[in-house]
Amino acid sequence: MFGYRVPAPDEAMLISGGRSKGDAPFRVVTGHGAYITPLFRKVRFLTLAMCEAEVEETCVTQQGISLNVRAVIAFKVGNDTESIISAGQRFLSDQDQMSVLTGRIFAGHLRSIIGSMTVEQIIKERQKLATEVLDGSKEEMVKIGLTVDALQIQSIDDGSLGYIRAMSAPHNAAIQQQAQIAQARANQAAAEAEQESQRNQAQYARQTAIVQAQYKAEVDKAQAEAAQAGPLAQAQAQREVLAMQTELAQRAAELRQQELVSEVVKPAEADAERVRILAVAEAEKMKIQAEAAASHNRVALDRLLIDQLPEIVRQAAQGLSGANLTVLNGADGLSEIATGLVGQGLAIYDSLRDSLGQHEPTEEATDRGELNPRPAPGEDL
């Protein structure tokens, strides 16, 4: 459109010739366009891009030592309207003067700051020097509408005085000493490694010689053994046959001993054990019968005899049955014979009772667990 102007992204458009807001001498437009009335308005553009200024200045330190300092400053016009107006009023017609003026401002502050410091401080605290120079020049830069983004001190030297070199001499000496020590250690390590390598080679040579000697000795021994293999093998075979025959004889003897034990000793031991067991059983039986007999009272003994009385009479009758007897008085005679048999049975019964009664325990002895013989007939109690 005719009369419509638009500034670049890194430019500020300054419009003069008309009224502006406030006390501003001209109108500032950034980031968008504006309509310009021909003949009544005038338009100029101020750069907002980054600019660079270099400073090479000879400064005297607190110690009176001259130092050549080189620094680089990165700056630009401020983005606010007040900064653009201040920079436009000073640099719009010759914008290259911004770099020149900025360099002079920083050179002055650089001389002032370095004059209050020693060489050692400047060398060791270079960042502190840059910060103090920035802080000292910030106010002046704001007045002319400029802002500083960075200050970089590139180099500091004393020309041909050699002061800085003398400062570094102790450090260089220490570094060189450490380097020499490190080199000496490296040389020593290399020499030790070489010596170790030589020792290893000598050891390897010795071991090789030993191995070769052992190998030769083994070869000679093998050859000698091979030469004697026939007789030695035969003798060894005979020894092995004798050893096997001796072992077989020992095994046969052991087997025969086992057979004898199985055929003679074991059966004898079995018979002896059987006899011993029977004897023990018989003794136990007699003991039990004795204890049983001792434990029975008189009534049980009489009962036993009474129960056996018929058998006694019967046996007596059988004895008479084989005898040649003549009965003269008939039935009376038979009655007398029967009566006699019964009487004999009773007599036998009394005799057995008296005989067994001599070994019957008394009641008191039974209570105490003792066995006392019964007194025989006619003895005093």
Instruction: Count all strands and give the number.
Output: 8
Main sheet characteristics? 3 strands, antiparallel
Low-pLDDT sequence parts: 324-328, 359-381
Tell me the Rg in angstroms: 75 Å
CATH H-level homologous superfamily name of the domain at 50-165: Band 7 domain
Q: Which strand order spans the largest sheet, edge to edge or round the barrel?
A: 3-2-5
Mean pLDDT across all amino acids = 79
CATH architecture of the domain at 50-165: 2-Layer Sandwich
Number of helices: 9
Shape: elongated
CATH class of the domain at 50-165: Alpha Beta
Helix content: 55-70%
**At the third CATH level, what is the topology name of the domain at 50-165?**
Tetrahydropterin Synthase, Chain A
Strand content: 5-15%
Order of secondary-structure elements: EEEEEEEHHHHEHHHHH
Estimated structural class: alpha+beta
Distance between the ends: 175 Å
InterPro entries: Band_7 (IPR001107), Band_7/SPFH_dom_sf (IPR036013), Flotillin_fam (IPR027705)
Keywords: Coiled coil, Membrane
Domain Band: 12-187
Protein name: SPFH domain-containing protein
